[in-house]
Design brief:
This protein is α+β, with helices and mostly antiparallel strands. The chain contains 9 helices and 4 strands. The protein has a 4-stranded antiparallel β-sheet with strand order 1-2-4-3, with helices on both faces. It is globular, with a radius of gyration of 20 Å. The protein starts with 6 loop residues before the first helix and ends in a 36-residue tail after the last strand.
Length: about 230
């Protein structure tokens, strides 16, 4: 039986169902689905309607393999630094299962957490015009639009910045996809059919996030105190 939703319910469901998906089946993403995803990116808001985004669709297995190698190297360096400085241990302090903790450390420091781009059926390389003032924010809006359409289509995606943070990695990405000098490689979006459903990630309670008039003045009371 087909579920029916009001517009608000449908929007809420898509927003709450979105996950970062890194494991995909071999099933290809249809051209019709990809067209919808890209169209939603095109419809994103931008400062002064600059529309600084450009998208490169990567399906070639060899190109995906090279992209995965760059992403894995970038993540490996970043998380190894975090491990050496003990920040990673602090971040995972509440995880009491030592086996799971060790596996997480290995996945992060080895770069496997981002190397999966090599296996994603489609990678969308998001580029932005360097001379546009609001380019980082504009391209982020386009990325989120695409991630939400991916979810609405029953597909999975992951927003990956690993190949674009270190200027050395970004230059490799630009060379690999012949991105001109006037553009910056911003992020990669992997897209595919999820291997399995994913549980929601924990979120901070809203009373810790929203303030009244001044930072630090609670807008919401804690649940046991009742809502303002």
């Amino acid at each position: 039986m087909t579920e029916t939703f009001t517009l608000v319910e449908a929007a809420k469901k898509i927003l709450l169902d979105r996950r970062s998906i890194r494991d995909y089946t071999p099933e290809p993403v249809s051209d019709a689905d990809l067209d919808l995803i890209l169209e939603m990116g095109r419809q994103a808001p931008s400062g002064e309607d600059a529309q600084p985004w450009r998208f490169i669709i990567v399906k070639d297995p060899e190109a995906r393999k090279k992209l995965g190698a760059v992403a894995g190297g970038g993540s490996g360096r970043r998380f190894t630094s975090e491990f050496v400085t003990q920040k990673m241990q602090e971040r995972f302090a509440n995880l009491k299962d030592e086996a799971k903790k060790k596996a997480a450390f290995e996945k992060l420091t080895s770069g496997q957490v981002s190397a999966f781009l090599a296996e994603a059926p489609v990678n969308i390389v998001v580029c932005g015009k360097k001379h546009v003032w609001d380019m980082p924010y504009d391209t982020s809006a386009a990325i989120e639009n695409m991630l939400l359409m991916v979810t609405a289509l029953g597909l999975g995606a992951c927003w990956v910045i690993a190949p674009c943070i270190d200027i050395r990695d970004e230059e490799r990405v630009k060379e690999l996809f012949t991105i001109p000098e006037g553009y910056k490689a911003i992020s990669i979006i992997s897209v595919g059919h999820p291997v399995r459903p994913h549980r929601p990630r924990p979120r901070l309670p809203i009373h810790e996030l929203v303030f009244r008039e001044k930072f630090g003045e609670p807008y919401y009371k804690k649940p046991d105190e009742g809502q303002a």
